[in-house]
Design brief:
This protein is an alpha+beta fold. 25% of the residues lie in helices and 33% in strands. It has helices at residues 13-20, 29-32, 84-90, 92-95, 107-115, 152-165, 172-175, 180-184, and strands at residues 45-51, 54-64, 67-75, 100-106, 119-127, 130-138, 142-146, 192-199, 202-210.
Length: 222
């Protein structure tokens, strides 16, 4: 399931560094240091994926408009083979507005990009015994992602917009906070979600979905 990536908190810097250390691509000093040269690539934006209350995935991207480059991607070894790397890539439209991403890599990581749906092109053998590849992927321009407890304000603003457009309680949203049920919503539950829709990285809609159980071994329906 696609989720909304988050920028790391200051207190998570050491956790981000620990996860990045597992990346097959090690950042150069130029990647770690901001550049004031307008002709040099911008410093990457870093986003994290959390599981069990800790950072287990990191992705760094740079780019402008709808096209971006993946400069780093790494997942804690204890959380691999769960689709986290792929989910981080497909979550990029929710935070960056990218509809196309690309990366350059070598033999060690190219299969990951193939499995994630990238088109792969060989760049030849620029170094002895090292073949390089360029990988490209078109991402959907419109995606939906489950909101988290940290996004109560965002969801409240979307609800307020909808209420105003529908002419429902137009004065309520001018003087009051988000509806109380948002604070009481079971954000960490596996039976209900608030989905936020994004177009080019901009939140444009929401929906509340519940999973109803079945009486047999099937998991239920939405």
């Amino acid at each position: 399931m696609i989720r909304h990536l988050h920028q790391p908190a200051e207190t998570e810097r050491s956790s981000v560094a620990a996860v990045i250390a597992h990346s097959l691509y090690q950042p150069s000093r130029e990647d770690r240091t901001p550049s004031s040269d307008p002709h040099q690539p911008a410093r990457p934006q870093v986003f994290v994926w959390r599981e069990d209350g800790k950072v287990v995935g990191v992705i760094a991207v740079r780019g402008e408009g709808e096209r971006g480059e993946i400069s780093h991607i790494a997942v804690d070894p204890a959380y691999r083979i769960r689709g986290i790397g792929r989910a981080m890539i497909y979550s990029l439209p929710t935070v960056c507005g990218f509809t196309e991403v690309w990366a350059e890599t070598d033999q060690d990581a190219v299969d990951f990009y193939r499995r994630s749906g990238f088109a792969v092109e060989s760049l030849g053998w620029p170094y002895p015994n090292t073949e390089r590849f360029r990988c490209r992927l078109a991402l959907p321009g419109a995606v939906a992602a489950p909101a988290t407890r940290d996004e109560v304000r965002l969801v409240g603003e979307l609800i307020a917009w909808h209420q105003r457009e529908a002419g429902m309680n137009p004065d309520l949203w001018e003087r009051g906070p988000a509806p109380a049920w948002l604070n009481e919503f079971p954000w960490d539950d596996q039976w209900a979600w608030v989905l936020v829709g994004y177009t080019a990285g901009r939140p444009v809609g929401y929906g509340v979905i519940c999973r109803l159980p079945k009486l047999d071994v099937r998991r239920g329906f939405l």
